[in-house]
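Each field is set out underneath.
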Amino acid sequence: MIVAALLLGALALWGASRLTWFAEFRDGGVRGTVLYRETGEQRATALVPLALLALAGVAGLVATGGWARRVLGVVLALAGAAAVWTGVAGVRFGGYADGLPVTEMLLGRGLAVLGGILVAAGGLAALKGAGRAARLGAKYAAPATRKKVRDPDAELWEALSEGEDPTDVRGRHSE
């Protein structure tokens, strides 16, 4: 869930950076009036770095645990809030000249807001579940740091590995 939110958020932020965020007609001299466009990447330079941060956050959440995961969750939540602010700041819904790509401009900002919400939600979910989620390599942790869980099937296999007969009740209780 968290990884999917971060990946979709990163994808939405990257997509928003590729769409037109600003357009106007300008005097092109001999060419007449030309349509001038700026993409989200040109207009809001933080979009691509925020998308990359969300992608790095996926790796960070998988690799860390405990307080490090909580810190990363806070960073991702703040990055998501920054992306939402970037999409909302300066938006206007009217007063456009005919012929401008208004739908694309509003879609770009909407994608930035959606991406920011997804990244913030992923960060907050990581913050909330930091203690419960498994960490990469936890299976290979030192025996003292691993929690002992009694598994009867594993005990039978361990007994066989040690050369004991796990079905011999007398031999196992006499130790």
